[in-house]
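Dear Dr. L.,

I hope this message finds you well. Following up on our conversation about the binding site, I have prepared a predicted three-dimensional model of the protein together with L-homoserine. For your records, I am including the exact sequence and ligand specification that went into the calculation, followed by the structure tokens. Please feel free to forward this to your student if that is useful.
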Amino acid sequence: MSWSIKVPSSTANLGAGFDSIGLALNLYLELNIEEADEWQFIAASACLEGIPIGKENLVYQIVEQVAKLYGKENQIPACHVTMKSEIPLARGLGSSATAVVAGIELANVLLDLHLTEADKVQIATDMEGHPDNVAPSLLGGCVIGHYDGTVTYSQVAIKGVTFVACIPNFELKTKDARNALPVQFSFKESVQASSVANVSIAALCQGDWQTLGEMMDKDPFHQPYRKALIPHYDELHHYLKEQGAYGVFLSGAGPTMLAVVEEEKANSLVDKWKEGYPDYDWFALQVEHRGSVVEKI
Ligand code: HSE
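The resulting structure of the complex is given below.
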């Protein structure tokens, strides 16, 4: 049997929504799967050059973990998997979350698990430790989640804006970016921080991008600590805001920065920004309203 699996990338945090807010974007990981005699992964795009070709591949590792959860580890049929990706690795656009989601979707079809969307979100969040990349990659759109062992989530409709990605040519491992964060906040700091997150959610729900942009700049959770790891962060932030972005934020753990801009202005802004900062890759990305899609071929 053969299947295709398509999983959208994602951005996470959107300022103060640390480990909680994420939204799906229109760059994709695509898998073509055929049952075969032994496992083999074939990289069919430059982004994936050098990925493990056998059972060390992250997608297989996830398939195996899901199989174990359901006591089916001895029933996994071998497959040839051709992988194509548009998502740059370790840049804060949820590339590893797409592999986790693809592995869960693959286990679901190979082992006939009949997982619900909620099951998939729970399994993926258990694996990642937070829902902000995996939930939008599974469900599409903007998802706000809470995780304390059990994941609870709610979706928010988003329209009218484009997210312009400014992608530097170096990787930043999430682990290193998390090591830069403080270990604790006082009660007063926690109350302040949660109010920034609360206003961010209200603004997101209203499509009040100006207010969301202001709150992004008041994020006390991660950007003040992580920006030291990203050369030119302050300079770019200042430039993009001055050029008319509603808001600018570090995408997930970085190093990609995203500017929230009016849909109609996105293409002309990208042309201008490319000229100003040619050493970065610039993409005008849209919210992907569909989550992962699995088809039998
Ligand atoms: N919320 C996560 C972080 C996303 O910022 O570390 C990346 O895994």
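In brief: Residues 17 and 197 are 6 Å apart (CA to CA).

With kind regards,
A. P.
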